[in-house]
Amino acid sequence: MEPIIQASNKKVYPIIYKPSPNSRDSINCFLVEDAYSLTLIDAGIEHPTYKQFFKEQLATYGFQLQDISQILLTHHHNDHTGMVNDIVASKNIPVYASDKAVPRLRFEPDYLYYKIAFFEHLYKVYDVLHTEAAINRMMKLRTTYEQHEQLKIQANILPLHQSQKLGDFHIQYFPGHSPDSIAFYDESTKWLFAGDIIFSNSIPNALVDFDEEGEMLQTVQQQQQSFHALQNLELSHVFAGHQPSFTNTAEVIERSLRHMDTKWQRIYQALQQGELTGQQLAQAAYGLKLDSAFIFVMSDIIGYTYYGEAQKKITINKETGVWKFSINA
Ligand SMILES: [Zn+2]
User: Fold this and answer.
1) Burial zone of 261 (CB within 10 Å; 0-12 exposed, 13-18 middle, 19+ buried)
2) Does the pLDDT at position 8 exceed 90?
């Protein structure tokens, strides 16, 4: 368990959940108390065991659900939104997230419908659409589309924008892991509530996604820029969505940038053997992980090949239905 952190008139109560005793990563959310409010930053997963755990943690700190005065979400992923519906049902409080999170949290049918077509095309040109992992992913996307009414966040989401202030929190966009990733920065304490922007021991996956026009986002460049933007912030304590909180911020950011370079090298090296399809490249660089961690591996393959193309280090031949990748001489 992480300790309560205190500075001036503010306190952070960490709610750290380990799905099983030997799970590597925890699922974290944080209660921030000041003289006027009790803010919940992120809301865990939706699961009966988690609900029980969450309420017990609150009780340990001397709180109950109704004491929470607002919820702030770092991004839309369901390991950060689990308790929102329950809390809002017990008391109608404001729920804030990035403006870019709104269609995703609402499970808007147009957005979900486009997402299916977007990934179908992408997996086709990367020549993995026929694999079992891709078939399962596509099935899951279709199920999500069909069940959007049940899945959506019931609360009315209040959109936050870059550089906006909410109480003492500065809102800053840090895209990369997801397009709607934002952090809450408290200038007086130099605390950063970072969600899945940066972790203490590994780097968050830069998940393939698209913008409002349906265009593929340069997620790898975004993540790199986000790490650089973090270097410009004075940080005393980073509270992350997974893994332990940390204070050695400069070191963690540098390691994260190096980790990105390692990922890039892995793909660049694999292409030394000559022109490859997306599937061949994924297999050469990641082996069996292509099946066991399909979404993450494909996010790296797609993200870093686009990155390489933008850097003029990789050529993507898009003339045929299945794209071919090669390194530039
Ligand atoms: Zn997460």
Assistant:
1) exposed
2) no
Instruction: Answer whether 0.70 is exceeded by the pTM.
Output: yes
What spacing in Å lies between the alpha carbon of 320 and ligand 1's midpoint?
Answer: 36
Distance from the alpha carbon of residue 79 to the mean position of ligand 1, in angstroms: 5
How many domains are there within the chain? 2
Asked if residue 280 belongs to a domain, the reply is yes
Q: Is residue 255 part of a domain?
A: no
CA of 313 to the centre of ligand 1 (A): 31
One-letter identity of residue 198: I
Q: Per-residue b/e over 230-240, b at no fewer than 16 CB within 10 Å? A: beebebebbbb
User: CA-to-CA distance for 19 and 57, rounded, in angstroms?
Assistant: 15
Tens of pLDDT, residue by residue over 100-159, are 999 999 999 999 999 999 999 999 999 999 999 999 999 999 999 999 999 888 888 999
